Amino acid sequence: MSGLRAWIFQRITAIYLAVFVPTALGYLLFYPVTSYQPWVELLSSPWVNTSLLLFVFAILLHGWIGIRDVVIDYVQPFPARIGLLVLVGLGLVASGAWAARILFNVIGVV
Predict the structure, then answer these.
(1) Separation in Å, CA 109 to CA 17, 42, 94
(2) Which residue of 35, 49, 84, 99 has the smallest Cβ count within 10 Å?
(3) Binding-site annotation: residue ranges for heme
(4) Binding residues for a ubiquinone
(5) Which segment of the chain is annotated as a signal peptide (predicted)?
(6) Residue 13, exposed/middle/buried by CB under 10 A (0-12, 13-18, 19+)?
(7) Contact at 8 Å (CB) between 63 and 13?
(8) How confident is the model at residue 1 (pLDDT cuts 50, 70, 90)?
(9) pTM to 2 decimals?
(10) Which domains does the chain have, with CATH numbers?
(11) Closest by CA position to 59, among listed 88, 96, 107
């Protein structure tokens, strides 16, 4: 990924995160969810489920770009850099798959 494209993706994900987090917190402040069944009903909504899945994707992409840039800048030995990037990438993919499985489980896909 080129520097300009990474910068653009970083900004787009930052905007989505900056809009999503206050919106979600505001909703939960005014409509508190206090037990399991209301959570299931909330997360079963296609709008909520999709926006939450996009949130997970945005935060993982945002994190990947930031961590990748730091590793490229500060880890000089090439094998260590590649190894660290592979570990971080696998961890982020696993986290994303776990979150998607949870969200798809709520709506009954998995």
Answers:
(1) 26, 16, 19
(2) 35
(3) 62
(4) 74
(5) none
(6) buried
(7) no
(8) low
(9) 0.88
(10) 3-107 (1.20.1300.10)
(11) 96
| 66, two tokens | 């930031």
pLDDT in tens, 55-84: 999 999 999 999 999 999 999 999 999 999
Residue-wise pLDDT for 4-26, tens only, equals 999 999 999 999 999 999 999 99
> Which segments are annotated as binding site?
62, 74
Q: Give DSSP secondary structure letters for the chain.
A: --HHHHHHHHHHHHHHHHHHHHHHHHHHHHS---SHHHHHHHHHSHHHHHHHHHHHHHHHHHHHHHHHHHHHHH--SHHHHHHHHHHHHHHHHHHHHHHHHHHHHHHT--
